[in-house]
Structure formats: C-alpha cells, structure tokens
C-alpha cells in the first residue's frame, strides 16, 4: 500500500481503526529460574502473547495479553509454576493518558523558532519538520542525507552533523522498533546540543561527525501513532500477517533457529529473506558506502541495558575488553546524572539470543568494531509509555553516554569475525 492510500484510509477510518486496548493486561511472572525460562520458551512466539520483557534467568518476564485470552494463558502460566500477576489491569488507560498528555503539551507549547519540543513525544511529520528546520537554520553544520524510502514510501533521512571534511563518525538508529517512542527524543536532544547549543559542545563537533537516523522504521512508527500504539514491526505484508521485525532482518546470522512458517505473525518475524525490508537494506547500503562511520549505536527501549555483540551466540567477541570498557564508561556517565544504573554485556548473555540485528550486522559485516544497542528505561508500570515528564532525564543521561561513545570512535574499520 502506498502512502496515498494510507492517508485516505487514515482520513476515512481514523477513529474506528485505532486499536482498542481496553482490557488488555500486562502480566508479570515471578523471578525466573533456568528451568522456568525453558518452560516459558515455547510460548514466546505465540501470537496471542506480546512479550514486553523477554524471559531470562533472575528476572520477571512481562507479557501483554488481550482480554479474550487472559483466562486461558494465566491458567497456562500458573500450571507452569510461573505465578503470573497482573501489573497493569487495563493498558488502554495508559494509552489514553499518553494521548491526552501529548495533546495537552501540543496546545501548551508555543513552537516559536526552531527548537524541537524536547519535552514530549513527536510524531513522524513533526520530526521530519524539525529535520527540515534544523538543516535550514544550520546549513554549515547539518546535511540531510536521503538514504531511501520505507515500504509505504516515507523518507529515510539521516541527519549528518559535521563542520569539516575527513572525520570519522558515529551513527545512531532509533525507532527501528516502532513503539519505542523514547528513542527519538534522545537523538533530537543530541542534535539540538550540537546546533543550538554548539557553544557548549564545539569540541564534540570539531572531533567527529555525527549521523542520526531518527526514525529507522517510519511506517511502523506512523502506525504506532495513528492505529496501534504497540506496533513493533515494519508494515510490509507477508503471507499471513503484516510486518517484519527490522531488527531481525539484517544479513547477519539471519533467522538462525527460526521456523519461518510459524513466525510470520510473531513480533520477531525476521522476514522472508535477509534485507527483505527496504528500510534495513537502505541502512546497510548507506553504512557500507560510508566507511567514515566507525561506530554504531542502536537506540531501543525498554530495559536499561548497554549491549554489544554477540546476539547469535553466547561466545564473547574478540575485542570484548574494549567494547566493555567503553560501555562501562558510558554507564558511569549516565549514573553520574541521577544515579540510574544500566546493565552491561553481550546481547545473548544479558538479554536473549537475537539474530540479524543492526548492531551485530554493523560489527560483523561492516567491520564496525564498536557497535552497541542501548535499551532506554521503561515507564514504570507503563512499559513503552513513560510519561513525558521522564523524557528530560533520559535525554540528559543519554547525552552523557553519547558523548562517551563519541570520544571513543575508532580510527578505522576492522573486521574481527567473519563467519560467512
Ligand atoms: C473499547 O472496547 C471497550 C470494551 O470492549 C468498549 O467499552 C469501548 O467503548 C471501546 N472504546 C472505543 C473507543 O471504541
Ligand atoms: C515449522 O512449523 C510448521 C508448523 O508447525 C511445521 O509443519 C514445520 O515442519 C516446521 N519447520 C521446521 C523447519 O521446523
Ligand atoms: C533522580 O532520582 C531521584 C531518586 O531516585 C528521584 O526521586 C528523582 O525524581 C530523579 N530526578 C529526576 C529528574 O527524575
Ligand atoms: Zn527494540
């Protein structure tokens, strides 16, 4: 479906088509043991269950469930000894509250000048308008690079900040998972620091180039604003359902362990083939064509983690000491702001096995030896809906971490590990 048809549908059916989350519950299991994780594993790809926090040893899993499935799955989880309890009784209350808050802030703010509204979530059009404004206002620093289009035809715009040629750069992708709305504000804040507040940050721009792909999954992001707040994937239809998990679609140990028939409707469906999603293909083409980029940071939520390769194996990457040292330094910078502590380690060891992620692709296939995923904090019991009042602290913390990342940009690419 092209964007025209989409807009038309949105106009015709806006109120009716907004997914009604009335009665959807967020369940939390007990703290899981090794055995519990094994017993819950077969449930991960059930399309009735949306795992907001994946099962892992020593933590509780969190699962969103529709009212019509709640009784059955609570009984199932109970029979497995996982002691599910309801931590949000009706998630639609949070969705509604968030929407009202955004409308209230929109009315309040006087968007005079070019400042982005850094204190609330911005929709796709608002973010693109900001990109246009900031590039017009700071033409000597900001270049907007059109790296391609989404499935529905929305632009993939990389904001490049540079004050001279020949420098190495750091690349950020955010909102590749549509519902993770807390990511783009941290990138917008960084852009603002490097333009409006450049006087305080001149050395950061003198040293390196910065690249931000603010919305890496524009169709999904748009969908999460106008139809389904908790949409995660792209919007390209497959045989059975709609959408691919773009952060499983990169050509790096793609779909290992996956059963494609069963997975088409799941939240982590990796696509029909590597780079089936134009968004992921565009990112990879751009990264491969831009060797000056020697550091990669994927911005996600939620969970307070700084992750590095690998996701596909529990083995440690060859330069694990370097990866870990920079992550520790970034975490210390975050903690210095207001005491927040992130957990650090490889994706597979700290979180779960993940194949075909942008982070690991950048490391293994593009030779970017420092490649990270930062999982930003969630909103207490609201998961993906942190209140807007949380944004400024997350922005301030991330900015400190981003500065640490930028201070460690490698001087060249190098490939430690090629398994293909
Ligand atoms: C959402 O669903 C609930 C219960 O099924 C219903 O009472 C409510 O009116 C619906 N809300 C909207 C906006 O359709
Ligand atoms: C995938 O799942 C389908 C449906 O359960 C099954 O028929 C098929 O054999 C599985 N394929 C593989 C490769 O395991
Ligand atoms: C900083 O942390 C303290 C203690 O946890 C908390 O009460 C306070 O709200 C935090 N500050 C901000 C700006 O969130
Ligand atoms: Zn994510």
From TrEMBL:
Keywords: Carboxypeptidase, Disulfide bond, Hydrolase, Metal-binding, Metalloprotease, Protease, Signal, Zinc
Pfam families registered for this protein in UniProt: Peptidase_M14 (PF00246), Propep_M14 (PF02244)
Cofactor(s) demanded: Zn(2+)
Protein name, entry field: Peptidase M14 domain-containing protein
Organism from which the protein derives: Cloeon dipterum
Record's signal peptide: 1-17
GO MF, any single term: zinc ion binding
Spans through the membrane: none
The keyword Endoplasmic reticulum is assigned to this record: no
């Amino acid at each position: 479906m092209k964007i025209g048809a989409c807009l038309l549908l949105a106009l015709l059916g806006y109120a009716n088509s907004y997914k009604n989350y009335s009665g959807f519950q967020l369940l939390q299991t007990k703290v899981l043991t090794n055995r519990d994780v094994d017993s819950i594993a077969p449930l991960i790809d059930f399309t009735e269950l949306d795992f907001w926090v994946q099962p892992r040893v020593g933590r509780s899993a969190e699962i969103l469930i529709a009212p019509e499935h709640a009784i059955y799955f609570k009984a199932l989880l109970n029979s497995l000894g996982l002691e599910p309890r309801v931590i949000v009784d009706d998630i639609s209350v949070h969705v509604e509250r968030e929407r009202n808050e955004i409308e209230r802030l929109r009315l309040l703010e006087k968007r005079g000048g070019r400042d982005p509204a850094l204190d609330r979530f911005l929709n796709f059009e608002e973010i693109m308008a900001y990109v246009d404004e900031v590039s017009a206002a700071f033409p000597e620093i900001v270049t907007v690079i059109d790296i391609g289009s989404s499935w529905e035809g929305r632009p993939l715009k990389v904001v490049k900040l540079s004050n001279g040629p020949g420098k190495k750069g750091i690349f950020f992708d955010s909102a590749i998972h549509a519902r993770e709305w807390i990511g783009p504000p941290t990138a917008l804040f960084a852009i603002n620091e490097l333009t409006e507040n450049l006087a305080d940050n001149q050395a950061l721009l003198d040293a390196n180039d910065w690249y931000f792909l603010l919305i890496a999954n524009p169709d999904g992001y748009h969908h999460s604003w106008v139809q389904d707040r908790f949409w995660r994937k792209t919007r390209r239809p497959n045989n059975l359902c709609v959408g691919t998990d773009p952060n499983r679609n990169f050509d790096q140990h793609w779909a290992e362990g996956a059963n494609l028939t069963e997975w088409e409707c799941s939240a982590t469906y990796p696509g029909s083939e590597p780079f089936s999603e134009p968004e992921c293909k565009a990112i990879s083409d751009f990264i491969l064509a831009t060797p000056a980029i020697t550091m990669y940071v994927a911005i996600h939520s939620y969970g307070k983690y700084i992750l590095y390769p690998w996701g596909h194996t529990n083995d440690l990457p060859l330069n694990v000491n370097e990866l870990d040292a920079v992550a520790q330094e970034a975490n210390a910078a975050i903690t210095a702001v207001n005491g927040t502590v992130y957990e650090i380690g490889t994706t597979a060891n700290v979180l779960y096995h993940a194949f075909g992620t942008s982070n690991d692709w950048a490391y293994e296939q593009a030779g970017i030896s420092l490649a990270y995923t930062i999982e930003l904090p969630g909103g207490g019991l609201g998961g993906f809906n942190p209140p807007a009042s949380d944004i400024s602290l997350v922005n301030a913390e991330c900015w400190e971490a981003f500065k640490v990342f930028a201070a460690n940009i490698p001087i060249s690419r190098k490939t430690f590990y090629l398994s293909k």
